[in-house]
Amino acid sequence: MNLPKTVLVVEDEIVLQDVYKLILTAGGYNVHTASNGVEGLRKIKAVKPDVVLLDLFMPQMDGKELLRNIDLSGYPNTRIIVYSNLSDKTTETEVMNLGAHDFVLKSSMTPNDLLELVKKHL
Amino acid sequence: MPKSDSEKDDSRERYQAFIQNSSEGIWRFELDEPISTSLSPKEQIKRMYKYAYLAETNMSTAKMYGYRSVKPLIGMRLGEFLIESDPQNKEYLEAFIASGYNLTQVESHERDKWGKDKYFLNSLIGITEGDYLVRAWGTQQDVTEQKAASQALLMSEERLQLALQASSMGLWEWDVATNELYWSPELRKIYGVGLREPIDFVKYMTMIHPEDVEHANEVAGESMKTGETYQFEHRIIRPDGSVHWLLGTGRAYLEDGKPVRMVGTSMNIDAVKQAQELRAANDELKTERAELLALNRAKDEFIALASHQLRTPATAVKQYISLLLNEVVGPVSDDQLQYLQIAFNSNERQLRIINDLLKTAQIDSSLYTLHKDQHDMVAIVRSAIEELEDTFDLRSQMVEVKGLEKAFIEVDDSEMRLVFINLLDNASKYSYPKTKIVISIHKKGAKTLEISVKDKGVGINKQDRARIFDKFTRVDNDLSDTVTGTGLGLYWVERIVGLHNGSISVESERGKGSTFNIRLPL
Predict the structure, then answer these.
(1) Residues of chain A neighbouring B318 (CB-CB closer than 8 A)
(2) Could you report the per-residue pLDDT of B316-331, keeping only the tens digit for each?
(3) How far is CA B485 from the centre of its chain?
(4) Are B462 and B424 in contact (CB under 8 A)?
(5) How many CB atoms are located within 10 Å of the residue A56 CB?
(6) DSSP letter, residue A2
(7) Cross-strand pairs, B450
(8) pLDDT mean across residues, chain B
(9) Tell me, what's the pLDDT at B482?
(10) Residues of chain B contacting A89 with CB distance shorter than 8 Å
(11) Residue from the list A13, A86, A88 with its beta carbon closest to the beta carbon of B316
(12) Directed axis angle between helix B270-325 and helix B334-364, to 10°?
């Protein structure tokens, strides 16, 4: 029996958090949410998600800080997609060097694109 | 009637009393041998030192030489008082002879009991009998102190002159009553005025820089009221027209509260001013640089924040409308679908505009850097064509790539892709359907890669050609009403090509089409 895959959405904008949860749940995923980096870090440890959708601009601990504070070798099955509305190449290079698996411009994605993206990383 | 002895005694007593009580020194020199007045002055002087002795004097004289009584002086030789070797004394005695042995107010240099220098002001008269000088009467005043003071003054004046010369300081003195103005040679040099040129107050004022005249009048006027020293910096205009900075000092001397005389100094401080100005300019530049850096940082932070803040709400709109369009929350009627599609498209357009503005802000930023690597330009061009496939299909336009099959060059591939997407999008937009767009890639010499994008479109007016690369420029032409855009595409193109040290030019003819040529260094 195939257990549903787990996605953690780390996103401080509640309207976006809600809609991503809606889309991914409809897509058959087990969805967890976190509203900042601190909470995100805690949930990664607790849930060990298959995919993390990680926003960059967040209060308390932003996406980059989260990447700096996590030892990714402890989570070999977790893929981290930085999913942000920052689109510059410098940021992209920086987060990829911090261990992210993908860097995507949030505003360019439709719900279907999002499902495709997550599927691609599983 | 002959005087009686008592009368004679009486007169003698009065005479003695007068002499002894006089505050002036009074003396009588007698000669061992009379001196012939026909002898040369030199010989006469020689004999004066040889034969003259003090025969009579008073208490005042004794005191002048450091004695407490007259007695020890009587019989002393002339040379014991007057210093024979001093030329001043030679002059004094020569003058006495030349005057016919009648001289007033002449200075002598003598020595007192302890050998100390003394200066006396003498008035004397020689008594001659026939052609012979037989004795001399005289009075003297002790002017040693005044002499010392005036010598000190002379010395300090000399020192002052030396100091002035050494510091290139000019000196002036103005007699208020006579309006006479004295300028030292150094001051004339400072003002560029000839040594013999007459100078007066009016002329002086015309050389003060017009902007400093008021200040000059103010400080000088204040000193003329108070007698206090002033100091101020001002400019002058020399007769040759050159402007210089001076540091001026001065003070007025008052008598009964009224200025009678003013003195002052001036010094050229061009070097000081230049250094000050350089320092100020340097400080200003530093501040400006710091401000610019801060501004740049603020701008970059703003871009980052704006990217996030402007896109986030539009992203939410996009997601929710998409869910409705996908009928995730229930069926939607055709009319509703149409309106939702319009809302979706409108939101997409807003996102594009945000992207365009952010892209512009990014490449305008001084901190913007290219991510260069070796890439095949042909592949980049083909990828741009692929991106625009739908666009070309829409207008049934053909795109042809000519020239090199591979062209490796160090570029930022995503930025170069953007360059060709923009050029090709323009080529398509401003060409009629079923026309052809040709891209040719070839080497121009050993060190340049040239890529041209040629269309058979509406072309660009000559007067518009210069400004098509400017920000937000949109040119009116036969097709401009049908196309949309922010007028930023060609701005990015030129900027990105420039960041690659390349150049872009355009050839165009109205109605026949345009060709954009990009040259990049290999």
Answers:
(1) 107, 110
(2) 999 999 989 988 888 9
(3) 53
(4) no
(5) 25
(6) P
(7) B442, B519
(8) 86
(9) 59
(10) 371, 414
(11) A13
(12) 160
Total number of residues shown for chain B: 522
C-beta of residue A9 within 8 angstroms of C-beta of residue A20: yes
The residues facing A102 across adjacent strands are A81
Instruction: Give the model's pLDDT for residue B1.
Output: 47
Q: Is the Cβ–Cβ distance between B200 and B170 less than 8 Å?
A: no
A56/B362 CB distance under 8 A: no
Does the beta carbon of B307 lie under 8 angstroms from any beta carbon of chain A?
A: yes
Contact of A118 with A29, CB cutoff 8 Å = yes
* pLDDT cut 90: percent of chain A above it: 64
| Joined tokens for residue B407 | 């062209």
Q: Is B323 within 8 Å of A56 when comparing Cβ atoms?
A: no
Percentage of chain B exceeding pLDDT 70 = 93
- Look at residue B284 and tell me whether its pLDDT is greater than 60: yes
B274 or A36, higher pLDDT? A36
Cα separation of B348 and B317, whole Å? 10
Query: From the CA of A26, how many Å to the nearest CA of chain B?
Result: 8
Q: Which pLDDT does position B318 carry in this prediction?
A: 92
Looking at residue B510, what is its pLDDT? 84
Q: Does A19 touch chain B (CB under 8 A)?
A: yes
- E strand or H helix at B295: helix B270-325
Q: What is the average per-residue pLDDT within B450-477?
A: 83
What pLDDT, in 10s, does the model give residues B166-178?
567 888 888 888 8
| Predicted pLDDT at B144 | 87
Give me the mean pLDDT over the B374-393 stretch: 92
Q: What pLDDT sits at residue B358?
A: 81
Burial B97-135 (b: 16+ CB within 10 A, else e): beeebebeebbbbbbbeeeeebbbbbebbbeeeeeebeb
Burial label, B350 (beta-carbon count in 10 A; 0-12, 13-18, 19+): middle
CB < 8 Å to A90, chain B: 369
b/e B22-58 (16+ beta carbons within 10 angstroms → b): eebbbbebebeebbeeebeeeebbebbeebbbbebbb
Q: What CA–CA distance (Å, rounded) separates B5 from B489?
A: 139
Q: Are B243 and B237 in contact (CB under 8 A)?
A: yes
Euclidean distance between CA atoms A65 and A72, whole angstroms: 13
Write out the two tokens for B92.
């004094």
Contacts with B, A 26-85, CB within 8 Å: 26, 56-57, 84-85
